Amino acid sequence: MSLTNVQVDQGPSLAVPEPAGKDAKKIAGRSPTKIAFDRLRADKVAVVSFFIVLFFVLIAIFAPLITRAFGVQLNAGDPVRDLDVFGFPRFGPPDHGFTWKAPLGIAPSTGKDNLAQWLYGARTSLEVATASTIGSTLLGIVMGLAAGFSRGWLDRVITFIIDVFLSFPFLLGALALAPILVNRFQSNASALDKAQFVSLVLILTFFTWMYLARLIRGEVLSMREREFVQAARAIGVPTTSILFKELLPNLVAPIVVSISLGLPAFVTAEAGLAYLGVGLTGRPSWGQTINNATAYFREYPLYLWAPVVGIMVLVVALNLLGDSIRDAFDPKTRR
Amino acid sequence: MHWKRPAVAISGAALLTLAACGGGSSGGGTGAGPTATFSAGGGSGQSIDMSRSDGPAPPIDGAKQGGTVTSLTNRGASTFDPTEIYYTNTASIGQALVFRSLTQYVYNPDTKEMVLIPDLASSWKSNADFTDWTFTLRDGVKYENGQPVTCADMRYGLLRSMDRDAFPTGASYSNDYFLGGDKYKGPITSGSTKFPGITCNGQDLNIKMTKPFPDMPYWGSFPAMSPIPQSASDPKKYRLHPLATGPYKFDKYQPGTSLTLVRNDQWDPASDPGRHAYPDGYNFKFTEDSSKLDQLIINDQGSAQTTLTYENLLTADYRTATQQAPDRVVTGTSPCTFFWYPDYTKITDVNVRRAIGLAYPYENAWLAAGSIVGVTRIPATSIMPPGIPGRPNKTYDPLGIGGKNTDTAKAKQMLKDANALGYELKFYYSTDDPNSVNVKNEIVKSLTTAGFKASPVATTTNQFYTLTQDPNSPVNVRSLGWCSDWPSGSSWLPPELGSNSPQSINLSKFSEPAVDKEMNRIQTLPLDQQPDAWYQLDKTIGEKYFPMIPTGYSGSAMMHGSKIQGMNNDSTFGYPTWKDIWISS
């Protein structure tokens, strides 16, 4: 990316070298992004959080391999064989000790292996969160840039759309859409699963892009009268180039921050919707397991704790990482 | 007749369980079988004892007056108008505590059965062919406001039970059987109380029938057969505060949330042979969280000691409950059978239907639905559940699997012989109910192993019943249940399998002229031969046609606090025996 303008712009506040003199040359060569990454690397919390997130990402990617390594399988339980008359497991927790046959135990009522469900649940969570983040970020950037840079009617239209979406209750939309989809794809299970996944991502996207769009619109509004933009216009740079080459690089900080705070929000939203019964039903997810397990919180705590801890650790790690990234990218933060 | 959903879906999660739906269709012809003599055996309300007409009810040893019972449930209760409470929860509470009908059930601790005894009617008689009934009403019974209950009020209550437009959720037996009931629109819709079929002569209430109705005393126990003064009968107001004739009256009622009952000082124990009314009052709390209420009652602290629930315990809590306090768990039968109905018009080969019966994953599905095998779900082989007269304790077994031993290998062989490997079965499940999804997974697994092609069709809990009861829905197997209103083969075979029965009840769309003929013949048999004839017909149908797959009888597993005494299972509803409950100190 071209960073010339950024340096012109940000220079005074950022590049004032504290240890004036000997390293002045080196500092002058560092981009804000590089400065941010240097700050991040020095931040212990950020590093730990990053590795935790990386751990979950690896789990999500290699879920099939890990389940095979543990010798467990998805949807392999047989209730009569594996459960007693009360619907509790015949082996493993909560009544019998730890067994490698099912390291996290098996689910009451169905006999599904909890570890396999958990691993694939991590995959579902991260897939939904990543896809939704990408979707809402792209939509937010495009709408924000367009609204901020265009004066007049387009700005007013987009601002109006943003307000409409902000005022529309997200949960109501999700609850209303779920039965419609079920009816539309009712006789085709795999199409229903895909439709549920796509619709979940779309719902999460369409009800979250506004926050980033508003942020970017505000930034662009304040930036478009700056000298470097005026100069670019004066020499006849096309609007798209101004938007993507001149303005966008200056918006990296809010975008990265929005992504890092959006991911954990989507993980919880996915689990929350699955808990309400309007999320995914065709594939394992933490939310569904929690929904099934709440009744067992006293008799079989591990069943409930596994997905709860999974969500908690992932969300806390993502949030801490997000905070650190925001601090690192914020030129006003002093450490 | 008017069908009410019995809420026994694929999941087994009963949301709005109904008293039941036996009886004839409004088109006529499905009639009723006389049931004056009953065989012994477990089940629902098997005997009538007209001699117990004098109050007060014989006291229970050690029982004390006083205290308030709290009842928690996850279901709502949107109306308490006696004419329209046909759901098991409101009907059971109303009948036992608030409204007095012509007859009533009481619990017999020796046989653990319910017995039908007189209530407002001190005696009754009919002519030889059960088309003319006379009920003699008690003197001196009063409403909660002190007004006397007259025969005219009783008549008005019965007229109201024929008003299908004003009370669409009520049962329609009055319309089906009372002379002129099919034409009469009811006192509220038509504005007229002219109805020659019901007449009063002093305290004698006479009802004429269009066709033999030997089960009238059973129908007489429903809250719809209770007196209602014509002056107080604005349905919109009345449903919120109906006039009590029983031992308790409404104090505060918030539909769907709570109901508080306090003593009705106008109720005279000497006039009531069945109700004990030991507690001073009842607090009903509706739409509570199941998991929370289970924990509350298991822990048994403070006010939870005088708390009970008529919901079945969650599977998660049943084991703890039976280990920690087995004497506080009340189990017993309730009058329902669950079925898988293959569409008789689409799946025409009886061997394919038998193969489905062999391939159905009985125990796996029960566990996945959260039922407790042997307690809330009992293996079934015959259509009629235990307690129906004529049905022996050990029934015929058309598949030889005892109603639970799935045999996919045999099913596959059968399919192969029938040249139907890969036969596609389409059935509904609800995506928003985890139990339903779990059951669906088990069924798909088992059917696939047996060589079927399983194509579950997704729907939502809201639509499940509507779609299942729609005869044109694009599935070929339907899943629901049937509950009887009173113990008689006539409330099972004609509605479930008669050609005249609406297809929202006869879900397999079964129609065989020979079976119809036999049903009509049985209804003209002498009374004492009918129970056995119904069972023989049940057997013939099961062995020859196998039109529906019984997937288990229902049962209840309720719990109460340590100070609640006298709570047993009322097998006519699968609910507590409210009339006998008392609080110890």
Q: Can I get a quick summary?
A:
The complex is a heterodimer of chains A (335) and B (585). Chain A is mainly alpha-helical.
What share of the residues of chain B does DSSP label as strand, in percent?
A: 15-25%
- Give the N-terminus to C-terminus distance of chain B in angstroms: 48 Å
One letter per element, helices H and strands E, the order of chain A comes to HHHHHHHHHHHHHHHH
Largest interface, by Cβ-Cβ below 8 angstroms: which chains and how many residues each? A-B, 34 and 38 residues
Helix content of chain A: 55-70%
Count of individual beta strands of chain B: 22
Assembly level: heterodimer
Average predicted local confidence, pLDDT of chain B: 86
Radius of gyration of chain A equals 24 Å
Helix content of chain B: 10-25%
* Total helical elements of chain B: 16
How far apart are the first and last residues' alpha carbons of chain A, in Å? 27 Å
Spatial shape of chain B = globular
For the sheet with most strands of chain B, the description reads: 9 strands, mixed
Which stretches of chain B are low in confidence, meaning pLDDT under 50 for 5 or more residues running? Answer: 1-45
**Discrete helix count of chain A:** 16
Supply the key terms.
heterodimer, A: 335 residues, mainly alpha, 16 helices, 70% helix, elongated, disordered N terminus, B: 585 residues, alpha+beta, 9-stranded mixed β-sheet, 4-stranded antiparallel β-sheet, 22 strands, globular
